[in-house]
Amino acid sequence: YFKTFLKGGVPYSFPSGGVNRFIIRGIEREAGLDPNNPTAFITGLTFTEGGNFTGTMTPITACFNPSVAGSGWMQSPEGAYTENPASNGYAIFSLVSKIRKDSTVPWGNAGFVFPNGHLRFHSDKYESLKSNLTGTEVQLKGTGTINGSGSYSFIISAGDKSKMWGEDTFRIQIWETATGNVVYDNEANQKIAGGLIQIFKE
């Protein structure tokens, strides 16, 4: 019996004499496997001489439910607010979301206020919350209202880049649910000017 640590995609030769069995217990997260893809975890074998082989392969991947909390402010660029493309200035955001153990639907709320555009958005329902494998970025989808009325859909893309010695990012896209007409969309991966975004693995 022996134990060793291997990197995905790097060939490994067993010691002289071979082995009568081996077990692969996991693979590094950095390999970027998709736990929902049944073909993602593949092990290749090359035989040097004839013989019999019997094997089984059971992919086991570690998954987590993300949660996110954050608030702060950013500079809203020109062109982001379609009703008044020339308007710019500061905008305030807040969000909190998690997936409870007894549900697959995210819980929480989000708000976004752009004073110069007289835009006040508030979520009323979340639909999904997804994270990348490293837990540094989340995407939150749902619906809400503007200035207390209407039916709008939104996507929030938030980055907890401070984990990697970077700066947190925030993007919100809002559009009319019925027509698909875009109401607000600031630039992707925009760095926040103040505040904090934190993403947790649970």
What labels would you give this structure?
202 residues, elongated, mainly beta
Shape: elongated
**Helix content estimate:** under 10%
Could you name the ranges where pLDDT drops below 50 across 5 or more consecutive residues?
A: none
Gap between N and C termini:
34 Å
Strand content: 35-45%
Structural description of this entry:
This protein has 202 residues and is an all-beta fold. The protein has strands spanning 66-76, 89-98, 107-114, 119-131, 137-146, 149-159, 169-176, 182-185, 194-201. A 9-stranded antiparallel sheet has the order 8-7-6-5-4-3-2-1-9, with no helix packed on it. The chain is elongated, with a radius of gyration of 23 Å. 22% of the residues are buried. The mean pLDDT is 84.
Structure described in brief:
This protein is mainly beta and 202 residues long. Helix content is 0%, strand content 41%.
Itemize the secondary structure elements and their pairings.
Blueprint: E1 66-76, E2 89-98, E3 107-114, E4 119-131, E5 137-146, E6 149-159, E7 169-176, E8 182-185, E9 194-201
Antiparallel strand pairs: 1-2, 1-9, 2-3, 3-4, 4-5, 5-6, 6-7, 7-8
